[in-house]
Amino acid sequence: MAFNSPLFFIYLVFFFAGTILFRKRALIMFYTLMSYLFYSAAYPPYVLLLFASTTVDYTVGRRLAVVTDPRWRKIYLLVSLSVNLGLLASFKYIGFFAEITNRFLALSGFDWAFAIPAITLPIGISFYTFQTLSYTIDVYRGKCPPCKSYLDFACYVAFFPQLIAGPIVRASEFLPQINTDRPFTTKNTIKGIELVVIGYFKKLVVADNCAYFVNIVYASPSGHGGAALWMATLFFGVQIYADFSGYSDVARGLGKILGFDLPVNFKWPYLSQSMKEFWRRWHMTLSFWLRDYLYISLGGNRVGRARYSINIVITWFLGGLWHGAALHFIAWGLYHGMFVTCENLISKYLPSRFKIKTPSVIKIVVTYLIVQVGWVLFRSDSLSQSYYILKKMFFYDPQSYFTKIERFAGEPIYLFALLIVTHIFTYYMSYDVDKRSLLLKMPYPLRVVALGVAFTIIILFAGKEQQFIYFAF
Amino acid sequence: MSDSALSIFQTISQKKLYFRIKTLLLEVIVPCMVFLFISNIVFASDYLTEKMISHRKQKVDSNTIVQWQMMRIEKMATEKSQYGKVIFVGSSSVVNGIDVNIVDAVLRSSGLNEMSYNYGATGLSAYELPLLKRYLLRPDVRLIVFLYNTFSFGDHFHEQAYLTRWDTFEFIKLGFYNHLDGNLLTQVSNGMGSELLHIVRYKALIRQYFRGAIDGDLKLITSYYDYPADEPLPPENRDIKLLRKRPDREFVRLMVKDSIAGKDTIGHAGMLRFIQLAKQKNIRVIVAPAPEPKYADYVFREGLNIDRYDNKIKELVLSAGAEYLPRSYIREFESKDVHFRDIIHLHSTARKIYSKIIAKRVVKYLAGSNNGV
């Protein structure tokens, strides 16, 4: 069930109705059951996977609380890792691995191939398995006390605003909030609605309208020149940012209405001055997850130069793979990893006399362009298509470079301008909403009219409905 | 059961309940009411409706056309006719096939005062009739003439239509849940959204109108026909070698194939349901085939036994208590390729002829001929 479907609003009516009626434990049970209902809307049997991941990790957490023998603690942790990563591998990557193996077998001259299973990806599996893994690893490391209540833990894992596409919430952030009985406080409701409206605007008006142009060009790269491919790529950069950050805003907003503070996931990423900074501002909960549970576990930067570089490569390899079971996603991850590695090596090992002071605006533009080029790998259907598109973008052919560039005259430019305005507006709102809330400052009548107008604008100018991009992960 | 276990079933204290309801009401429901007001009162106002019906951008997409037709129908439905309405409904064959001025002239010359209305809409199929009941089955409607095509009784929902021509209750009554592609709940909820919200139902139309107003690109619409009246006449005999056969995956061909199979479809169920509803309102219904050219056999009707198709509809209609007009009333008219500008639509000159033909049948019916039609 997507946040932009009318069915979701019907669901929300029942959800809110139940929320105002129940207290404390009954409310948590209600949240959990309704979140499972939310999840089951896509494909009911996959609710069992969510249940399995929850139950295994809750049990592991409880055992880690009492077991002190380091070998047994490791075994329990391995159980959690095996189950969660096993689920992920089975449902998300098995087809990919089979395909890679078959290609290798074919290249090696073998006549035989694995059958590639047709498995529907359980929606949100990449998110909730990482979420539960963060819990067990934190408990193992002693950074988070184990959760005593199964109900609380189930609510944490399944909480619907962040279940399907993040943000990836740490147990230590969420669990302490569970038993505070505070849905529908006036301040939180207003701030929450503000976030929700901003999120829907970004997703429905900006992202879905951008998608129209992106899809046309990427569906037929051979019919478009390099300039049009550049424009489509830049638009995709807008689309994916608005889509994903919009979803995160809606998730945070709904959480806020219910009394929960969910972590910020985006912080003006396109104003980053380096690739490292980009990953401190883009999909922050995932990049921090990778840093805390993978990169640091591998040794981080407290190892030799060679090992440090390998750690980064592994982290980005898996980061790319997390996004999709395909070579072009891995390439995208490694592309980012390569730049992050270079930056780290330069800043760490290059003597300061060789370092050039570059104006911030240059750094921002360069970083932005590097990220946009990377989106070609992300958006393409395959590695070969990525290569084809990049070749067209970077090699100037006077006869065809500007083919179909007229697609991007007029309306698309308005969209681009709209994103810039949205970006500026949301800087003050979405990630620092506690301090800056436009709606809270408004008198009630004006607030009500502003919201009514905002809903109207969103509905009226929403693009053709597109699935949230990160639902595919 | 222990007290602590029981406590989870205790609901909230009254004070907290009051506070939560108040917040929900003031901060969520009231803004939604404002939105509903803007959507269903401001955008649905007579002034804006009149503007959007009479002006359109030079170039619009098919979604906008479908919504424009629906807005026009919605407006006509609210117009009260002192002497009663005669409504012609069907696909774009009806849009381009009925000249209401000619029909009215025939009615007046026969001493009848009813007003005729063209409720044609692109792709409108039989299953949609009950979904449009709130526009068709009004107190001042005396007679509804449903002119069907050979693709009107298929088993598929029209992709563009379902978000504009929808009635959730009637859809549920039809019971053809398994006919929706994709997720049923999502599609029904999308349909409900368009049914309840004016700006969802007419989104494309509203957008293009305001965009056209900003760009200065709006033109006055002088007729509801899809094609200009001064088009050159079609050839006397169409060269079928120049015609494109419709592939089986296209909507019109899918619908015809359903009819070739001879099974009962949502079209038949919709027709039956509509006649029942009309009878409850004492509104008479005539069902008649819309003219189609012979060369349509080559383009999209291949494999269809038209007589068998018509007979099935005739049996259904008569058993439900409505009137049926057999194809013989247009056999000669249909045989002339020159009447058709394409596989479905009449040329403007043929529209005048056909309007007179159908109007005379309507006169016979309204005048209460013993032989019916």
Strand order of the largest sheet of chain B: 3-2-4-6-7
Cα gyration radius of chain A (Å):
23 Å
Which descriptor suits the 3D outline of chain B? globular
Q: What is the chains' assembly state?
A: heterodimer
> Unreliable stretches of chain B, pLDDT < 50, 5 or more residues?
369-373
Proportion in β-strands of chain B: 5-15%
**Overall radius of gyration of chain B:** 24 Å
Order of SSEs of chain B, N→C?
HHHEHEHHEHEHHHHEHHEHHEHH
Work out the helix count of chain B. Answer: 17
Overall mean pLDDT of chain A stands at 87
| Most strands sheet of chain A | none
Q: Which two chains touch over the largest interface?
A: A-B, 38 and 38 residues
- The number of helical elements of chain A comes to 19
Output mean pLDDT of chain B.
Answer: 88
- Beta percentage of chain A is under 5%
Task: List the keywords.
heterodimer, A: 473 residues, mainly alpha, 19 helices, B: 373 residues, alpha/beta, 5-stranded parallel sheet, two-stranded antiparallel ribbon, 49% helix, 9% strand, disordered C terminus
Explained architecture:
The complex is a heterodimer of chains A (473) and B (373). Chain A has 473 residues and is an all-alpha fold. Helix content of chain A is 70%, strand content 0%. Chain A has 19 helices and no strands. In chain A, helix 3 (47-66) packs antiparallel against helix 4. The longest helix of chain A has 38 residues, at 70-107. Chain A is globular, with a radius of gyration of 23 Å. The model of chain A has no long low-confidence stretch (mean pLDDT 87). With 373 residues, chain B is α/β, with parallel strands linked by helices. Chain B has a five-stranded parallel beta sheet, sandwiched between helices. In chain B, strands 1-5 form a two-stranded antiparallel sheet. In chain B, 44% of the residues are buried. At the A-B interface, helix 1, helix 2, helix 9 and helix 19 of A face helix 2, helix 9 and helix 11 of B.
